[in-house]
Structure formats: C-alpha cells, structure tokens
Amino acid sequence: MQFGLTEEQEMIVSTVRSFVENEIYPHEDRVERSGEVPREVSQEIKRKCQELGFYACNFPESVGGAGLSHVDFALVERELGRGSMALTHFFGRPQNILMACEGEQVDRYLLPAVRGERMDALAMTEPDAGSDVRGMKCSARREGGDWVINGSKHFISGADHADFIIVFIATGEDDTPKGPKKRITTFLVDRGTPGFTIREGYKSVSHRGYKNMILEFDDCRLPDAQVLGEVDGGFEVMNEWLYATRITVATMSVGRARRVFDYALSYAAERKQFGQQIGKFQGVSFQIADMITEIDAADWLTLASAWRLDQGLPANREIASAKLYASEMLARVTDATLQIFGGMGLMDDFPIERFWRDARVERIWDGTSEIQRHIISRDLLRPLGA
What is the pTM of this model? Predict the structure, then answer.
C-alpha cells in the first residue's frame, strides 16, 4: 500500500472538501434548527454534485458511475463526513447492492439510481430484529403466483424521499441443530405500491434532518420480478454488497473527527486563562496530542481496509476493526473537544454540542460496536477451532 495519495486522489479530496465547505456548511444551522432539508436545497446539492461528475461515484463506469476504487471512494466519504448527513445524503451514493439487479431491474432501478433519477433506501431493521437479522418477523408468503408481505421495518434512513426501498424479508424457515433459522429474500419495493406505507419514525438527537422512517406492509403483493437476487438468497446478496456501509461509517467518522479537531486546536490556541493560551497547559495539550494520534490511526486503519478490497483480499475483520475503532474514536474526540470548550461547548452558539450528539449513533447503526467485536474475534478464533 502506498501511504501517499496520488495526484488524482489529492484532487478528489480537494474537490469534495471544497464542495462540503461551500455547498453544505452554509445550510447546516437551518437544518439543525428546523429538522428539515428544504426541497430546493436538496435538489440544488444533487444538481451540483452531478455537474461535478461525483454522483454515484461508488458505481463502476460500466453502469454510468465514476468507477472509483474503494480507496478513492473512502476518501470521498471521509470528506463528506465533515458535513451534515441530512445534506450530504443528496450528494448521491446509491446502495451498492443494486449491482445485484438483473434483467429489467437494471433499467427500472439500477441505471435510474446511478443517473440520479430515482433514489433508494435500505430496509433491514425491525423493532425486535436489529443486530439479529434472522430474528426478523416481517414476512412474505406465496399466494396466487405473488408474494404477499406483512410486517414492519423501522429506523429506515432516507426512506422519506426514496422512490423505492431495498427490503430484506423472511420468506421461510429451516430447522437446524441450533433451532429455527429464517430464510431471507431481498425485494425491491416501489413507493406507492398498494399495501405499502412509509411514515415518519422516531425523533433522534443525532443527525437532525436525516430522518428515520417506519415502513408498514399490509398484504402488500409483489411479483417475482421484484426479487433482488435469488429467492431465499438475501444473505448472499447482503454479504456480497453491504460491506460498504461499515466502511462508510468509519470514513465519515474520521472526516467528522478532523473537523471537530480543527475547532479544538483553534480554541486551545486562542482561549486564554491564567494569562496564557489554554493549549499551553499540559492538561489540554496532551488531549490535543491524543486526539490527532487517534484520528490518524483511524484514518489509516480505514484506508487499509478499503485497500484490501481493491486488492481482492479478505477484509471482513479489517472493515469491522475500522468501523469499531473510528466510531469510538469519534466519541472520544467530540467529548474531549467539548471539554476543552468548557461550558460554551454545550451552547448552540458553536456546533460542538451537535457533533457530540451526532457521534453517539455511529457506535450503533450498521452494526453495533459489540457486533464488530464479535466479527473480529470470530475471524481470529475460528481458524483455531474455538
């Protein structure tokens, strides 16, 4: 792995960072206070991203994407992590899982998503099935040649403006020595399909304006043409394509930590107490040293996991390590920054309290820290028969 960025990668970083600073930062306070992204703002962000040629840059050139490598895309996500997720969402990164589309699904879902004509969302989590995916109760049964779906999903990000949802649904059950085991199938469900309702979800203290929605299925009928991949093959589709979500959390955590660190560094150099800048006190200067060390470590850990994917090497454990360390690093960095700011850090005159609140969810979604530790330890112990 080359530790220095190429000229092209430096250009990617510079372009995306400039975009975030000029097109995202100016709208953040408004979104934070209202909890809404005005439609004209979202569409303007989307249009400008398309003009830059970065829309769907996580997709190969063969389907109209920019064809960035995993490392290149990690750099894009890292810079987007500096901005409000409610706003950077419209920069446009459709779910990689759409590469599993076949036949007419390519023209109905994959290509329109890459062109920015249709937006998607991913639905897996249920009230009683978060990390335990096989515990899902939302189910589909065969009836008259169709699939009839009943149940619900919650915490579904982006579903408020999605044109279609990629939904994981239980389609059967097998008896195993360890008990019943659900079979999972992936479906493509269009907004407006009879029996399918999208409604507002819970109010979250993290990432205001980036809403989570509740999906409800009441005898919703879908033909076989809406199955993504093979029937009962949802786990295969998931395992092949969903690694990207964990890298995204890691990279965006690094980007946000670097933005927060800039605030901490500047404040430590400017704020005076007892006749000198607080950065001259060991209690603050050592925190600054620890913060940048952890940020750099998380950055390289994340880029290394993306590099392994580019080399075709196994990367499941490395991605889990990156997601685990980067998300927990962000929590420590935002908390230390708030401490350096003191009481002002909790006031909304500064965005520090927002960064502090936003950081909390990163250790939960896309696989909790506990799940990441399980993945890491299992990868290490299984070869030894443990």
Answer: 0.93
